[in-house]
Amino acid sequence: MGTTMKNQFVIQRRQQVAGWIVAIGMIIELLTLLWLHPISFLVYLFASLTLIIVGIVYYLISLLRVDQTQDERI
Amino acid sequence: MISLESILIALVSISFTLLGAIIVKPSITTDRGGKIVAFIALFILPVLVGFMGISVHLERSKRTEFCLSCHVMEAYGKSLYVDDKEYLPANHFQNNRVSRDKACYTCHTDYTMYGDLTAKLRGLRHLYVHYLGAIPDTIKLYSPYNNRECLHCHGASRVFEENPAHRENDTMLVGLKTNQISCLSSGCHDVVHNVHELEDVEFWKGWEQR
Questions:
Q1: pTM, full prediction
Q2: Does the beta carbon of A57 lie under 8 angstroms from any beta carbon of chain B?
């Protein structure tokens, strides 16, 4: 039971971190809309989109680790 | 009509709401409903926002203002206001034959990010040269201007098909349509931006009022 709760805490923490990463990526995306310039397009591609993808991947990895944790208990 | 930007901002707003819930109270993801919220907030919506962002930025990059945002393009923007019918871009721009908002893109549809991978990489190189390199005195196209850029508006039009100059001989029209004979460099419509001659021309009043 203790292990389960600890695992849940870890997973929630990862999802929280993923949430932060995605949110920061979206904030940068909104900021890039304020400036009509090729640089803002590049900032969107290399900063905002990268952070969003990293956040998504981190969240998906946290889901995989959930499955691994359950397998180990079985 | 709802713009792409409005949809993007709406999606981002919804994302922030759901992300805020997960960040502030991550324990909501323990139950089934919370897991669904997390999946929407951390996968579905970010994917949508990512794709929408690309669409919005691509649409914005078609705007004349975008192209002219780099100072090296200022002379080209100025050439759109030349008070001379012979100047092809100016003639099209001033008479609304191309959209004023997308004037550059209408005639340069395969330039930088709208072209193949090579063109996209060239676009990155332009940025590098603009900020860190030496901008050449004369900017040239990498390959001859393709008639396709003219024909996507003028092709099959009566003025184009029945113009006596385009029917000088049996092969002229076919040659124009197949890019064997250039609309520009053949000598017929060869006055384009000519930015090195702008000091000697007069401008349409729209230049001061823009």
A1: 0.85
A2: no
Helices (H), chain A: 2-32, 38-43, 49-73
Q: Cβ separation of B30 and A52 shorter than 8 Å? A: no
Per the structure block, which two tokens stand in for B49? Answer: 């926002």
Separation between Cα atoms, residue A70 and residue B138, nearest integer Å? 66
A61 inside 8 A of chain B by CB: no
Which residues make beta-bridge pairs with B82? B203
Give the sign of the dihedral formed by CA B137, CA B189, CA B118, CA A56: positive
The ipTM (two decimal places) reads 0.87
- How many angstroms separate the CA atoms of A56 and A62, rounded? 10
Name the burial class of residue B141, with classes exposed (0-12), middle (13-18) and buried (19+) by CB atoms within 10 angstroms of its CB: exposed
Specify the pLDDT at position A74: 46
The nearest alpha carbon in chain B to A55 belongs to: B42
Sign of CA dihedral B112, B113, B114, B119: positive
CB contact under 8 A, A37 and B66: yes
Q: Which tens digits make up the pLDDT trace of B20-54?
A: 999 999 999 989 999 999 999 999 999 999 999 99
